[in-house]
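Ticket #4471: structure export looks truncated?
Reporter: QA, pipeline team
Priority: medium

Steps to reproduce: submit the single chain below to the structure queue and open the exported record.
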Amino acid sequence: MVIEKQQIAITKTGFDMLKAEFEQLVHVDRPAIIRDIDEARQMGDLRENEAYHAARHKQALIQGRIDELEHILKNAMVVEQPDKTIGEVQLGSVVKLQISDGHKEFTIVGEHEVDITQNKISAASPLGQSLIGKRVGEIVQISVPAGSVEYRIVSIS
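Actual output as written to the record:
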């Protein structure tokens, strides 16, 4: 039995950002932490050397993130731009929604590029899942702890 690798959907912008982060970690941050570890080693007894232990901890975090990014980038299925001719919400779409107290605009992105401060929501989130495939004028309802929220799609770009 052949098991296919699971592809990770991501926008071109998100892919480029993750690739830049990967390059920074591999070519700048990792060599810097190796130098920090070497310097801390030269300070003497490693059992009580806080600088050494802190540097080793930071090295582990950096390496963990490098491994994670390497997996994402290797398995990425990059979506250049949404096909605006089909008129449906897709990965990469910017969707303007009407809600009870006004309008909200969200960009639908892959799960590894979510940034709620920039209104980038995952296509796998409850709202993202409800929006995918919908058209302008359609209404989606999302269940939230306080009840349900209704959104009407005003525009898709």
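Status: closed, not a bug. The export was complete when the record was re-opened. Leaving a note from the reviewer for reference: Strands lie at 8-11, 76-79, 94-99, 102-109, 120-122, 139-144, 147-156.
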